[in-house]
Specification:
By secondary structure, the chain is of the alpha/beta class. The protein has one domain: TIM Barrel (Alpha-Beta Barrel), CATH 3.20.20. The strands form two sheets. It has an eight-stranded parallel β-sheet with strand order 1-2-3-4-5-6-7-10. A two-stranded antiparallel ribbon has the order 8-9. Strand 8 and strand 9 form a beta hairpin. The two termini are 42 Å apart.
Length: 320
């Protein structure tokens, strides 16, 4: 071996000791995407959402298309969140998820306290891919009002007793206050607050102070998680790609809930209104790049296991 080859190997060896290992071929860190939507407008019965005039969304959003978009990012699993208030669509979504092992579970739609709620919950819970239900600012519902209806809190208690989770929908100050009430009345229930970075903040100081006080309370409860999802925004028609523009609010939420209770969710394909999957993930990874590797691993996959109790279906989902 010539002297220059020996020197070259020495330099490469030194570089490998200081550069990220993935530069030298190590597989990228895995990702569990905790918030995607699946639907098929070509079904004979159609879909309640998205509307036909939504050119960005009104097309098939199924696991095959999703995996094509995400494989290069080492997304090894995803959770589908309901996009329909129809009871029968719980079964449709379970069938779709069941046929694609990249899907580690789904969040369905049931109304606690409704006539057949307990029976439907028991039936759906027989499928291990059914992880819980979503409730909040969606389908003309009002959690703060519905909490006072007969049987509603009992329905949430049954959800908790089954080891399932309550996902929120589209937070604002009123919904956060209602979620706090849920936490007080059903303290054993695991709760996941979605899209918190995109929540509309109150403009009045007293209401804003109450909003942050409610989040602080929820942040102290070990079984309340938040999705740092719906992060990308547009300004003057252009996507804001600088992670620094998002850092203030994300840091505050990260501080309130801690690195053990923040989750990654892309909101695909609804996110296509603002940014592509590649752009969404790039912004998020740029923000989390300032965190230590352990915190990044918690955000991108470890915390999803604690929040949803999902079970692996593929070898690359056996994460430790």
């Amino acid at each position: 071996m010539q002297r220059r080859d020996i020197l070259k190997l020495a330099v490469l060896g030194a570089a490998e000791s200081v550069l990220p290992k993935k530069v030298f071929g190590e597989a990228p860190a895995p990702i569990i995407d905790t918030h995607i939507h699946l639907f098929d407008p070509t079904r004979p019965e159609g879909v309640p959402w998205p509307p036909k005039d939504d050119a960005a969304l009104y097309k098939q959003a199924l696991p095959g298309r999703y995996t094509t978009l995400t494989a290069k990012h080492h997304v090894v699993g995803a959770i589908a969140v309901e996009a329909s208030p129809l009871l029968t669509d719980n079964d449709w979504l379970l069938r779709v998820v069941g046929n694609h092992p990249v899907m580690v579970g789904m969040i369905g739609d049931l109304i606690p306290g409704s006539q057949n709620y307990m029976a439907d919950l028991e039936r759906l819970h027989r499928d291990p891919l059914f992880l819980g239900i979503r409730y909040g600012n969606l389908w003309d519902r009002d959690l703060s009002t519905d909490l006072e209806k007969p049987g509603f809190v009992d329905g949430l208690k049954a959800l908790a007793q089954a080891g399932l989770v309550l996902d929120s929908a589209n937070p604002d100050a009123k919904l956060i206050r209602a979620i706090r009430t849920v936490g007080e009345r059903v303290p054993e229930l695991r709760i996941v607050i979605d899209h918190l970075p995109n929540a509309k903040l109150p403009t009045q100081k007293a209401e804003l102070d109450q909003y942050w006080a409610d989040l602080k309370y929820l942040g102290q409860r070990p079984n309340v998680f938040v999705k740092l999802s719906e992060i990308p925004t547009r300004r003057d028609g252009r996507l804001v790609t600088d992670a620094g523009a998002y850092r203030g609010r994300l840091d505050r939420l990260w501080f309130l809930f801690g690195e053990d209770r923040v989750l990654f969710g892309s909101d695909w394909p609804n996110s296509d209104h603002v940014a592509t999957y590649d752009e969404t993930l790039s912004i998020v990874q740029s923000y989390t790049s300032t965190k230590d590797p352990g915190a990044q691993a918690k955000y991108f996959w470890k915390n999803s296991i604690a929040a949803y109790k999902w079970k692996p279906r593929r070898q690359d989902q056996h994460l430790t």
